[in-house]
Specification:
Length: 248
């Protein structure tokens, strides 16, 4: 769902018109990802390399492919005082693909991941289950998007917020973006999380001054201010991912 020192004001504008990068020079066909639910866990560990290795081994075990489930592990580069060092996400195409009660003991891959979690995953800072409102990315180049800016929000008018967000992303030439609704796991008043993907941190900051000067930014802020409060923002970078099962 990775690099992060930021200007809070600009993030709070909510990527308002972030034609800063994303797909300005690339125009592949963006399409909705077959993702219905996302299990998002933020971890704090001092053994990042070991965590990344155990995640790679779990993906190679094939434990997720049969259910068409995707997975990603991301390093946190900027998140203010939020203590997480990594974000781990599982991407489920439908309700049937969600983990069963005995999933952690059902395969060798899951048991190895469970053992690794106990030894190296460290502290779980937060764990949230989301229902997808929209997940959009170009299938042909999905793996090229490595940096993701996320916005954790309290949205008071989700019915009107979602189409405004989608319209803004399309008008801003963004090709990778998403909006998720919290099902369970919130402790801060968060109701939704939005994300925007970029090929690099440089793509994101490129044209930053132009973004702030764009009249559409002010217009977007005015509309969004009436229906959402940004609780926190973050930037994460992909270190391990497996999404091929989602496109089969």
């Amino acid at each position: 769902m990775k690099g992060m020192t930021f200007v809070a004001l600009a993030l709070a504008v909510f990527a308002g018109t972030s034609n800063i990068g994303a797909g300005a020079a690339h125009h592949e066909r963006a399409e909705a990802l077959p993702v219905a639910y996302v299990w998002h866990t933020e971890l704090k560990t001092t053994r990042g390399i070991a965590l990344e290795t155990s995640t790679e081994n779990f993906i190679k075990s094939g434990a997720l492919q049969a259910r068409g489930v995707g997975m990603g592990l991301y390093t946190v580069t900027a998140s203010g005082l939020h203590p997480a060092t990594h974000v781990r996400e599982f991407y489920y195409p439908n309700a049937a693909s969600l983990p069963s009660p005995d999933v952690m003991t059902s395969t060798k891959g899951h048991m190895a991941l469970r053992e690794a979690n106990e030894e190296i995953a460290g502290e779980i800072v937060t764990s949230t289950m989301y229902k997808t409102v929209m997940e959009v990315i170009p299938a042909e180049s999905a793996g090229e998007y490595k940096v993701f800016v996320s916005y954790h929000m309290n949205v008071s008018d989700p019915a009107n917020y979602a189409p405004l967000f989608e319209e803004l992303m399309k008008n801003s030439d963004n090709e990778a973006y998403g909006l998720r609704q919290v099902i369970a796991g919130d402790t801060t008043g968060e109701t939704h999380m939005a994300w925007v993907g970029y090929r690099s941190l440089g793509d994101f900051v490129l044209g930053f001054d132009a973004f702030l000067a764009n009249p559409k930014t002010a217009a977007a802020r005015e509309k969004f201010a009436a229906m959402r409060e940004v609780i926190r923002t973050a930037i994460v970078t992909t270190v391990v991912e497996s999404s091929s099962a989602m496109f089969q």
